[in-house]
Write a structure and sequence with these properties.
Chain lengths: ~110, ~110
């Protein structure tokens, strides 16, 4: 199973770019990498997903090197409202198959200061 | 549209009591997942459904945990003879078939006394 490792916490200031890296040395060929954001007393919320190289959407970018043993979530110009816990999830589900390898990391608590 | 809903939001149970947690996924979502999240930890996978078929239940911690999705829509996670270590937030997520975004509900916070 792909075990994930993330920094426990990070601090930043408003307007800065934040990069959070997740290590997943045992990632499998079929595994995707997904990042979620979670606020207290809420369920995780999807941020971005990728398989390899770079993915960008309106809120973040995801960088995945060729060996896929790590991934970096990049949040441009963070604001106070980005203070949350960020999880990387490595795994896959296949229609009609059985994949019990959905592994969340322990999360990175991002604190954005004014 | 409506997101994933879970009920109850909070549940207090006495040790040994049976509990049932409900998940209403987003309409049309084929995949449904249950996770357990202990305080300060990331979600831990419990089980996965594709329509009504439970394709993976490898994360269920014991035979006291049972999940069903009989009509491929609403799902129920049942915990029999609850123990204090079952206290956690139970999260439900749904998604379209295949490798896709999971949409999470707000969770049910279970406290076993």
């Amino acid at each position: 199973l792909a075990k994930t490792t993330q920094p426990i916490s990070m601090d930043s200031y408003e307007g800065q770019e934040v990069n959070i890296t997740c290590s997943h040395n045992n990632i499998a060929t079929n595994d995707y990498i997904t990042w979620y954001q979670q606020f207290p007393s809420q369920g995780p919320r999807f941020i971005i997903q990728g398989y390899k190289t770079k993915v960008t959407n309106e809120v973040a970018s995801l960088f995945i090197p060729a060996d896929r043993k790590s991934s970096t979530l990049s949040l441009p110009r963070v604001s106070l409202s980005d203070t949350a816990v960020y999880y990387c999830l490595v795994g896959a589900v296949n229609y009609g198959g059985s994949q019990g390898n959905l592994i969340f990391g322990k999360g990175t608590k991002l604190s954005v200061k004014p | 549209g409506a997101g994933v809903s879970q009920s109850p939001r909070y549940k207090v149970a006495k040790r040994g009591q049976d509990v049932a947690l409900r998940c209403d996924p987003i309409s049309g979502h084929v995949s449904l997942f249950w996770y357990q999240q202990a305080l300060g930890q990331g979600p831990e996978f419990l089980t996965y459904f594709q329509n009504e078929a439970q394709l993976d239940k490898s994360g269920l911690p014991s035979d006291r945990f049972f999940a069903e999705r009989p009509e491929g829509s609403v799902s129920t996670l049942k915990i029999q003879r609850t123990q204090q270590e079952d206290s956690a937030v139970y999260l439900c997520a749904s998604g379209l078939a295949g490798v896709e975004t999971q949409y999470f509900g707000p969770g049910t916070r279970l406290l076993v006394l």
